[in-house]
Amino acid sequence: MAEPIETSLEPRDGGATSAETSNRAAAVTVADKAAADLPRRNSMSLLVRTNLVLAVSALLIVVVAVVALNVFVIEPIAERSADDEAALLVLSAQTWVELPPDARPYFELELAQNHDLIISAELEPLAAADFNQPYLSLLQDKLAERLGVPVTLLQGDELIWADIPMGGFELQIGFSPSRRDIQPLYVGIIIIVLGAGIVFFASLFIVQRITRPLVQVAEKAEIFRGGENFEPLPEQGPRELVSLTRNFNIMARDISALLSNRTTLLAGVSHDLRTPLTRMRLALELLPDDVDPKLIERFERNLEAMDALIGDALRFARGTGERAQEVALAPFVADILGSFEQVIPLQVESADNLRLSVAPGALQRVIVNLVSNGLQHGDDVRVRLHGRQIHVIDSGPGIPESDRVQVFQPFFRLDSSRSAATGGSGLGLAIVQQLCQAQGWRVAIQSAPDGGTDVVVTL
């Protein structure tokens, strides 16, 4: 009698097993995630970075403008103004000396009314003026140049006084300290504030027009999982951005078509393979009674394994396209756990009436796969609901931290799960991860507080 034949999957890549291939793929995935997370943590957004560069550039431009304005405009104007002021004071003193004594009071009145100058032949003891205003120091120098003698400016109650010797007289002429005062500091502050405000709002408007399409592309790329319900981005804006969005839309449509073709192909292959499997089962049922029962049992076991593998591959290919529906989370999970022969405890730490918009078929398959996987590796499995998180906790040996990324790769199995009792196709957790990615959920593995594994699905 011929020996019974056991079906097996042999490696086809020159000796590399599917687990080794998955290890390499997982290593690449880990490296890619690390490389993608690093710039996200360390880099600023394009809007912030561009505004910062424009702000620094605008500040430097304003500083250069203020310095140039002070050197080439304010200082020459101030010098000319001080020279004109000094000429007016000297001319007033000279005119007062040349006038007859009886005409001097009328001249003094005219200076006070028309030029805000007070002229007096009676000297008052006054303190020296405080030269915190650059214009006063400049005026004193111009007076000294015109008179040929040092001139002292004095500080009165409200006026600045200049002692001017003229024609044998010592005259004091008073004028307002703010008459020709200049404020380069205030001018610079005004220019900087207004200039910075104008540059900021202008750059904000321009940069937002540029970055808004880029942000849309980034958000679409982050949530895109190859579903058939992809909505193309609007192709508008500058020429470069239109080219970027157009190529992204083309790429997304190609990927969606590729995944759809993969699903169709695997569905067709599954259908075509299940037909001969059904015929083989029928042939086994029609075998004569004198055939070895152990041989029939082995063939049936192999056929069931092949059928399970085909079903897992088909479920792995699918996982997108299901519409979201609003469900009550706690009752929904309780109904799923009630379908198991073994009692699965459910602990609800969130509101019993918490309702979420989820794909019910995908969520059911995720929970069933996780609970079934936990039952294969541990005697005790329990589920805990904490807000939007679903914890599936088992009492098994746990998953090493170094393998918590690889276990989500297709056909990857830990060494401890290669026995016939606990082994499988290696697609259970891969299906879970693909469904979570397609629905925008997150799945992670951590150690349970009392040992074992805690798989957390965040909706």
CATH class of the largest domain: Alpha Beta
Tally of separate helices:
10
Described by the principal axes of the CA atoms, the overall outline is rod-shaped
Structural class: alpha+beta
Classify the fold: give the CATH topology of the largest domain: Beta-Lactamase
Instruction: Detail the poorly predicted runs.
Output: 1-42, 416-422
Strand order of the largest sheet: 1-5-4-3-2
Tally the structural domains: 3
Largest sheet: 5 strands, antiparallel
Residue-averaged pLDDT, rounded?
A: 77
Fill in the keyword field for this structure:
459 residues; alpha+beta; Beta-Lactamase; Helix Hairpins; Heat Shock Protein 90; five-stranded antiparallel beta sheet; 12 strands; rod-shaped; disordered N terminus
